[in-house]
Amino acid sequence: MTQKQLDESTQYLQSKGFHKPEIGIVLGTGLGKLVDEIEDPLVAHYHNIPFFPLATVEFHSGKLVYGTLKGKKVVVMQGRFHLYEGYEFTDVTYPIRVMRQLGINKLFISNAAGAINLNFKKGDIMLVEDHINLQGGSPLAFKNVAEFGDRFVDMSDPYDPDMRKKIEQIATKMGISLQKGVYAAVVGPQLETKAEYRMLKIIGADAVGMSTVPEVIIANHLRLPVIAVSVLTDECDPDDLEPVNVSEILEVAARTEPKMITLFTELIQLL
Question: Do strands 72-78 and 63-69 pair parallel, antiparallel, or not at all (unpaired)?
């Protein structure tokens, strides 16, 4: 990754009318409908954006959508990139850097995750308060990282406290049950074994997924306030573990998605 590549990606999007968005949003698996709320949308498909990776997961659509949401200019990633698709950390996080260059000053992230905390149920939403990186690497571990910001990034409080507080207030006001907890990021794409679920619980994870953490690390590297929510699509009880059903996971995500959209759109209004 070079600054020249980032500049070319940014200039292409600017030429398509992507002008100074304030808020960037990353939509997780089965959570693409937020874009339907955007007024006067402009669309750029990943395969047309210079140096962008391509989403290879069949239920990730692969486009950036720009427009107005609740009076604010937003740019939304409909479809994200994962390590399990064979990408490097720098590929997975490249769009966050581009959105920052376009002008965003806040980042919202969503994901679909499995509930490790057995007090949480499928269909719940969890506000991510902290995370555990089990992906075996970092998006900051490359030679010329110092050209883009500090090499050693503080992660003592990676999720913006002010936005977290606001989203809790919104959830209370709107009657949305909001769990809070720790998200563990693994590589995937295989789901976890019973022993792995037990380990995740022991080390303090409340939910597990295959994304988000690299994006959050880069947001902190870019001094970009970030918030993340997990839509809990399955319950990971090692003593009563059902075989994974991807279509059911997508169905639970679709059913819960309106609550996530409400939280994000109301938060946009408050900012």
Answer: antiparallel
